[in-house]
Design a protein that fits this description.
Largest sheet: 8 strands, parallel, barrel
Shape: globular
Number of domains: 4
Number of helices: 18
Number of strands: 36
CATH superfamily of the largest domain: Glycosidases
CATH architecture of the largest domain: Alpha-Beta Barrel
Radius of gyration: 29 Å
Strand content: 25-35%
CATH class of the largest domain: Alpha Beta
Structural class: alpha/beta
Length: 776
């Protein structure tokens, strides 16, 4: 979308929200929604004559006051002076920041914000509470443009977070991000009252933290050959003599600076040092700590399965890792150190004499218990240093280490199991919390790893499973969003995937569950977007969704159009042309009874907000005719038994609900037209997404019959198996016929079966995806 659309949207939202935000009965536009908030009569006029008053001797309070002053000047153009006093009760026309440790009514991160026509007061028992109160105040001060005065509505707010862990993650191994961007990322975290930055510093594709005792970790492990012009899973390993030029790392001085910056934003950094797997970059630098001794190079792209692993049978491996963690502990003052623990392929352990000897010596029955031994040993070391180990839910396998905390990413089951064992848990399931997933249509959105997690789905997340008892639920510390960077090469791309979804998660982890309401959230979200001006945030929630309900009797489709936000005007066309502000205005569902292409677009003040979306509807001879399958579809139903004749074309997202998937099996489908008819065309749409194990069939064959027993082949196509990863594409295989009559049409598509040798999933089962069989 062009820059002029960004500017237009911001200005339009301001005009609408300025009139609506504080009207009679309107909600107070703060995200996350405060625990208690009351709109009072009148307003406070903020002007250059207003002062920011700090009570007490804390330098941190003064820093927060200066932060307020800087942000207000940035947002409004109004510059406020900061003044420190012992008593503030006599001050009028002031923003007063007051710290009171004696106020037991305020939670450690809680605050009280009072706005009257005379003054603004923010009270807290800790500096963090003051900082979060400031964030709420700043959301009440969000005009567009510069002004000399600003009227802030009179309110009484008393607030505190629901969870102690409110996190956002960033993977800097797959793609490296500058120190300056990390600070900006921390600002994004703070803006949303989140308090934890999970910094994924090491992985197969890069080691990003300076360890002085082991300089080769950054001399070798921080760099890989530049294959950025290729798809992530289609990158040739480094060859002999080739120089590694892509990468980077943070010096210990950089990290100290970033930690100090995070502390000023009341954000705790949790560093992640991956082990025992995802260790390819470290082993490229120090291969002696592997089972095989190498040599290794830093992989430039996808690696699967992850077989290069630290040797668990070698005591020097643990010395190596403990020495690394000693330096990491000195850099990061927070209580948690993340050690990964995920996706460890045990192939090398099974072959390694040292690992097998370790298992025998410690009476370990399998390699799963060997991993548990590994994790427990690292947990004991961290505990001896006053730290706590946290890892992905695979650390449950083989037995959980004492005092370990589990980060549950493969759904909620790992978190449930850990909580029932009395261990603390952070919920971060891929279904709701992976922000490297798409948030809109794949055809429109920038590249993502896959999946679909729109803003509203994030908002629907509940971190405490109903399976847990009240006591077990106390072990759920909170939740976190994860941003894995395989397909995120730039800071702008990262910002786009995080915003505004982080706002939805912030309300999930801060506000009482009973206060969450999507319709109430939307106008507050639109208000908060006014603070996103310096970020590249997504407008995906304004993309129009096209929902069709097919009527097989009347042979027509009922079409509904909507956006997640529900606020803009929607205009549409039926001939595939681009909608403009004179196109048909959507008011209610409508019907179509002929093949066509619906294009729909959201407008505010006659200006488009985002690109248009398209849905093809096909009304044809096989429309809602029964289909018999020789082999069943798996996981991807595409609409069930009539998926291949329901008149709906799929898009480029394999999980958009319109594709039917066949894993390993061939597709062998027979359509019964009910009677012998003249056939002039047979076509079917197939998806190719080799990154997701979806290949075009190697053979496609169309056959016809009048009795369902004797078939005549009328068209056959042989398609070469892809020799490298290909861009996602939809391939319509069409056969034109003449003088052909038939009742039964058979579509056979031969599955490639297994991924070819060049593929990251070499030997894994492939899929055939089909969306519609069209008969005309």
């Amino acid at each position: 979308m062009s820059k002029k659309y960004f500017v237009t949207l911001t200005a339009i939202l301001f005009i609408l929200l300025l009139n609506a935000s504080f009207g009679s009965g309107a909600d107070i536009p703060i995200i996350p929604k405060p625990v208690k908030a009351e709109r009072r009569t009148g307003s406070f006029t903020l002007s250059s004559a207003t002062k920011i008053i700090v009570t007490g001797e804390s330098d941190a309070q003064t820093d927060i006051a200066q932060y307020v002053s800087d942000r207000l000047k940035e947002q409004t153009g109004i510059s406020l002076a900061v003044k420190r006093v012992k008593k503030a009760s006599q001050y009028k026309n002031a923003v007063i920041l007051q710290l009171s440790n004696a106020d037991s009514a305020l939670a450690p991160e809680g605050y009280r914000l009072t706005v009257t026509p005379v003054r603004i007061r923010i009270e807290a028992s800790r500096e963090a509470g003051l900082f979060y109160g400031v964030q709420s105040l700043l959301q009440l001060c969000l005009p567009v443009g510069k002004s000399r005065k600003l009227n802030i509505p009179a309110v009484n707010i008393e607030d505190k977070p629901r969870f102690v862990w409110r996190g956002l993650h960033l993977d800097v191994s797959r793609h490296f991000f500058s120190k300056e961007f990390i600070k900006k990322y921390i600002d994004i975290i703070a803006l949303h009252k989140m308090n934890t930055f999970h910094w994924h510093l090491t992985d197969d594709q890069g080691w990003r933290v300076e360890i002085k005792r082991y300089p080769k970790l950054t001399e070798i492990g921080a760099w890989r050959v530049d294959r950025e012009d290729r798809g992530w899973n289609d990158r040739q390993p480094q060859i002999v003599g080739e120089k590694a030029t892509y990468g980077g790392f943070y010096t210990q001085t950089d990290i100290k600076e970033i930690v100090e910056y995070a502390n000023s934003r009341y954000v705790t950094i949790v560093p992640e040092i991956e082990m025992p797997a995802h260790s390819g970059a470290a082993l490229a630098a120090y291969p002696e700590y592997s089972c095989t001794g190498g040599p290794f190079t830093v992989p430039p792209g996808g690696v699967w399965p992850i077989v290069n692993i630290y040797c668990a049978g070698n005591d020097s491996t643990f010395t190596f890792l403990e020495n690394i963690l000693d330096e990491v502990i000195e850099l990061f003052p927070g209580k948690f150190i993340h050690i990964g623990g995920d996706e460890a392929d045990k192939t090398e352990w099974k072959k390694c004499p040292k690992c097998q000897s370790r298992m025998k010596e410690n009476d370990l029955k399998d390699e799963g218990e060997l991993q548990s031994y590994f994790i427990k040993r690292m947990a004991a070391f961290l505990q001896s240093k006053g730290k706590r180990l946290i890892g992905w839910d695979e650390i449950l396998e083989g037995g959980l280490a004492l005092d370990a905390t589990v980060m549950s990413w493969r759904g909620m089951d790992g978190g449930i199991a850990a909580a029932r064992q009395g261990h603390d848990v952070v919920m971060t399931p891929g279904s709701h919390c992976y922000f490297d997933y798409y948030q809109g249509s794949r055809e429109i959105e920038p590249m993502a790893i896959g999946g679909y997690t729109p803003l509203s789905k994030v908002y629907s997340f509940e971190p405490i499973p109903t399976d847990l008892t009240t006591e077990e639920a106390k072990h759920v510390l909170g939740a976190q969003a994860n941003v894995w960077s395989e397909f995120i090469p730039t800071p702008e791309h990262a910002e786009y995937l995080v915003l505004p979804r982080l706002a939805a998660l912030s309300e999930v982890v801060w506000s009482p569950a009973s206060l969450r309401d999507w319709k109430n959230f939307v106008p507050r979200m639109e208000n908060l977007m006014k603070s996103y001006g310096k970020y590249n945030y997504a407008k995906s929630a304004y993309l129009v969704s096209v929902t069709t309900v097919m009527d097989s009797i009347k042979r027509q489709a009922s079409v509904s159009l909507a956006t997640e936000m529900g606020t803009p005007v929607i205009r549409y066309t039926l001939d595939g042309s681009e909608p403009d502000n004179k196109s048909r205005l959507y008011k209610k569902p409508f019907t179509i009874n002929a093949t066509g292409a619906i294009k729909a677009l959201a407008f505010i003040a006659n200006k488009p907000i985002v690109p248009s979306t398209e849905q093809r509807i096909l009304i044809h001879k096989a429309f809602f005719k029964p289909v018999t399958l020789t082999y069943p579809y798996r996981k991807y139903a595409g609409g069930g038994n009539f998926a291949l004749t329901n008149g709906i074309r799929g898009g480029k997202s394999y999980d958009d609900g319109n594709w039917q998937g066949f894993e390993f099996d061939d597709l062998n489908a027979v359509v019964d037209l009910g009677e012998v008819q003249k056939i002039s065309k047979i076509s079917a749409g197939f998806l190719q997404n080799t990154n997701s194990w979806i290949f075009l069939p190697s053979v496609i064959e169309y056959s016809v019959s009048n009795d369902s027993t004797s078939y005549k082949t009328v068209g056959k196509y042989e398609i070469p198996v892809a020799s490298e990863n290909r861009e996602v594409s939809i391939n319509e295989i069409t056969l034109n016929l003449s003088e052909t009559h038939a009742r039964y049409i058979r579509v056979y598509a031969k599955n490639v079966g297994v991924c070819p040798d060049w593929h990251i999933g070499k030997g894994g089962k492939t899929w055939v995806f089909i969306d519609e069989i069209v008969i005309e």
